Amino acid sequence: MKLIEVQHVTKSFRGQVLLDQANATFEKGHIYGITGPNGSGKSVLFKLICGFIKPDQGEVIIHPNYRAKNANFPSNFGIIIDRPGYLAGHTGFENLKKWAEIQHKISDQDIQHTMRIVGLDPFARQKMKSYSLGMKQKIALAQAIMENQEVLILDEPFNALDIDSVNDIRSLLLDYKQEGKTIILTSHNQEDIDLLCDQVYQIRNKKLELVAPKVVTKPKVTV
Amino acid sequence: MWQKSYYPYVGYVLLCILGIANPFHISWINSVTIWDTLFLRFYGVSVQGGFSLLSFLFYVVVFMGLVYFFQVYITDYLSGRFYYAAIRNRSLYRLFTRLGIRVGVWAITLLVGLFLLTTLIGLASGQSLEPKLTVKADVGLYQVLYQFLINGWLQSMSGMILVFISAWLFKDVSYSLVILGLLVLAILPMFNVGSWLPAGLNSMGYISGQWKDLIQITAKLVGYLIIEISVVIYIFKKKDIALY
Amino acid sequence: MFGEVLFEVRKKLTPMFGLLWLLTLIAIISFAIYKSQHYILRDTLEYFSFVLNSALPIIFPIITVLVYVATFSGEVHHRFLVYTRMRRPILTTLYIKLLANIILTFLFFFSLIYICFLFAYYIEPHIGIAKYEPAGFGLTKDNIEADTYTRYTFTQLLQYGTITYSILYSFWVAMNAALYAGISFFLVLFIKNRFLALSLPFIIYVITIFTLISLDLEIYRLNYVIFPFDRVQDPLWKPFIPFIILLLILLCFLLYVKRNPSKVDSFS
């Protein structure tokens, strides 16, 4: 099933073209990687997919199961975009709870479970302003997955994570793929792309190009 | 459990109490009924009457205080974490509507709370509940209540939507600061010539005794709300969410 | 260090700075011109008070913050300040920026007030916008000068000449502006929420004035000690009381940061 289609999308910012006639198709149940140099437009592409910004030309089509006709944003999408956003004076759990209260889909126990999955203590009284960058990133990850979102748009999800956490999250994403979830991620670490992605798109010279899926012997991800 | 985050609200309530119960305010002597206190304390500014710095400042503290709390909230909200809130709402309109309902309820709660506070303080000071206004002969009780509750609510909503628009449009918080200053200045009749700006219009000082003047204020505020909401709809349609 | 302070000051003397100054001046003077057409005034001193006593006393703390602290808050927020630590001791950087802030804010307001004075005393009388009828206030050529000496706080200085009064009064306003800017500077370091940090001086200003009036302590209200045009004259020492209190607050902030740089989140 075609979940997301990027059709002839062009986007400029302040006169500078970032994406020129970009085309891509994302199917359900796969992991896709988006690569490219810094400032090439990966985050912009994600914001276009999520509906936060509109293309100058072309369109981004989301399957009707995931975006109602008059909706600005797709539903059932978990995202990590730009830098972590949070309420500095609250704990990690409190931050997640505030997001969860918007849709009332999950309970406190679900939040606690998700925090444990990403390697955080749900009962820690530390406020987020005292969190390390890695811990903030884990909160960003937690909010992206805690409501059992079916589509994950993850901009540099492994940023600032320790090696054990990286392995854990890789394993988690592969499990999610087995469950039929769709994941689109960016990473500057080629190993993440090689280990996880079924298909890779590269942004080069404002163009979005499908890099032929590499046949690699994927080493078993250690947990 | 008293959390640090509640302190600003406690301070706000204390300031409201100070403003209502202030025995040094000359109008305290004139208040016979609680309606007199309601009228005099929330006098704000007036086109015809004289200017009282205390009345003006109390108006700023109470009504701009609510707008300011919202402004602090929204400038922080429309930062990195906004994306994670937005994706959980189907659309910006839905998000804005939910936000609007929440601030609408805050505004009603504030107005009712102020009314009850004024009543309690007035009764404690020996003022009567008799349904009449003694300080201004041609002004009716229902006009005071209408101006306080209806126009008060509309004015509060107008202020909050204006700060929302400025926070959305201007990433730099300096602009929000300038907007705050301009909103405070716009309350003053010397700047709000003809009372055409949506600021300070729920002051009791604008009650002339004629219902048509109050209805005119309502019409102005409703008109401004329509314009402001139209601007919000337009910027949601046209502008990218590029919050930093 | 003084060279670095001058460098920092020169760096901030941008066209935007000039524009902010010019817009403020034009706004103040043009509003005074518009408003004065509806009033009959005593003399040029009253016109000068007229020029200053409209918007400026209310939004004074906002303008003091916009001069320098607003851009400084961006440096703090985006952690630019953190990365100066590898190049120069953080306290040195802080002193340089604090001094630059104080100098720039001082210059901004000194020139603003002084030019308003020049306009009221030397330009407007030639244009003839305002209507002067001192006789209507019971003033004649013989007693008007003496009346000016006792009219507002600080006009006691008119006895030493109008230039002396204008320079000293402009100096007073500029000093207060620099003080507010200095306090805002530290609030930006202590408070993570940028808008809250920048707006707090204005909020505290309004709340303090309101509280002081409510408690019948009008003579110490912050707008009056800087723009003393809506009350009878008070002795010259009285405005210094709030000034000294604010100065002590500023010094406390400075001492705290000097002794506890590791506790200031904005430095790391």
Q: Would you give an account of this structure?
A:
Chain B: Keywords: Membrane, Transmembrane, Transmembrane helix. Chain B: It comes from Paenibacillus shirakamiensis. The complex is a heterotrimer of chains A (223), B (244) and C (268). With 223 residues, chain A is of the alpha/beta class. Chain A contains six helices and nine strands. Chain A is globular. Chain B is mainly α and 244 residues long. Chain B has one domain. Chain B contains nine helices and no strands. The two termini of chain B are 36 Å apart. Chain C has one domain. In chain C, helix 4 packs across helix 8 and helix 6 runs antiparallel to helix 8. The longest helix of chain C is centred in the middle third of the chain and has 38 residues. The model of chain C has no long low-confidence stretch (mean pLDDT 90). Classes of the chains: A alpha/beta (223), B mainly alpha (244), C mainly alpha (268). Chains in contact: A-B, B-C.
Succession of helices and strands of chain A? EEEHEEHHHEHEHEE
Helix content of chain A: 25-40%
Q: Which CATH class of the largest domain in chain A is shown? A: Alpha Beta
Major sheet size, sense and barrel closure of chain A: 6 strands, mixed
Architecture of the largest domain in chain A in CATH? 3-Layer(aba) Sandwich
Supply the CATH superfamily name of the largest domain in chain A: P-loop containing nucleotide triphosphate hydrolases
Strand fraction of chain B equals under 5%
Number of domains of chain B: 1
Organism (chain B): Paenibacillus shirakamiensis
Transmembrane segments (chain B): 6-26, 38-62, 99-124, 144-170, 177-197, 217-236
Protein name (chain B): ABC transporter permease
Keywords (chain B): Membrane, Transmembrane, Transmembrane helix
